[in-house]
Design brief:
By secondary structure, this protein is an alpha+beta fold. It contains 6 helices and 4 strands. Strands 2-1-3-4 form a 4-stranded mixed sheet. Helix 4 links the parallel strand 1 and strand 2. Helix 4 packs across helix 6. The radius of gyration is 20 Å and the shape is elongated.
Length: 152
């Protein structure tokens, strides 16, 4: 009987440690997200090369899509979701693709932890949402609609 109680106690201790580890990780990620949202608005024309068309410059929302050449999730999941977002919102949204390894300043500014990462910005460059990992089109559309409502 005491062996069962010992095992049960160890199992409960392991569960508590796991819960604590997950909680600390979530707090860390949320702190990074809040720092990214508080980041100063970048000068997109300077930092991204200024290669915006007239339509992209007039967009009310910009999405920074951080990826890399070897990111499978970026190519297979995030890019199709971003295409659906652009089809759904047309000229109100501009997509800025950022190669994370070659843009360390932007990667650090937006506290990029993993690829893909998407950042939803208003027309002035203020971040309204940061998505670490894959963000589906529904989530991105909700975030865009929130930005559009705030600035209407």
């Amino acid at each position: 009987m005491s062996a069962i109680l010992l095992r049960l106690g160890l199992l409960m201790l392991l569960a508590a440690c796991t819960w604590l580890l997950v909680w600390v990780a979530r707090q860390y990620i949320e702190a990074r997200r809040q720092r990214a949202l508080a980041a100063l608005a970048p000068d997109f024309f300077a930092e991204t090369g200024g290669n915006f068309s007239a339509a992209e410059s007039a967009a009310k929302v910009r999405i920074l899509a951080f990826s890399s050449a070897d990111c499978r999730q970026c190519k297979q999941l995030q890019e199709p979701a971003l295409r659906r977002v652009l089809e759904a919102r047309g000229d109100t949204v501009a997509l800025v693709t950022v190669d994370a390894p070659s843009s360390p300043e932007l990667t650090e500014r937006y506290q990029v932890l993993t690829l893909p990462t998407t950042v939803v910005l208003d027309s002035s460059g203020k971040a309204h949402a940061v998505n670490y990992g894959f963000a589906n089109s529904t989530r991105l559309l909700e975030q865009i609609d929130t930005v559009l409502c705030v600035h209407s």
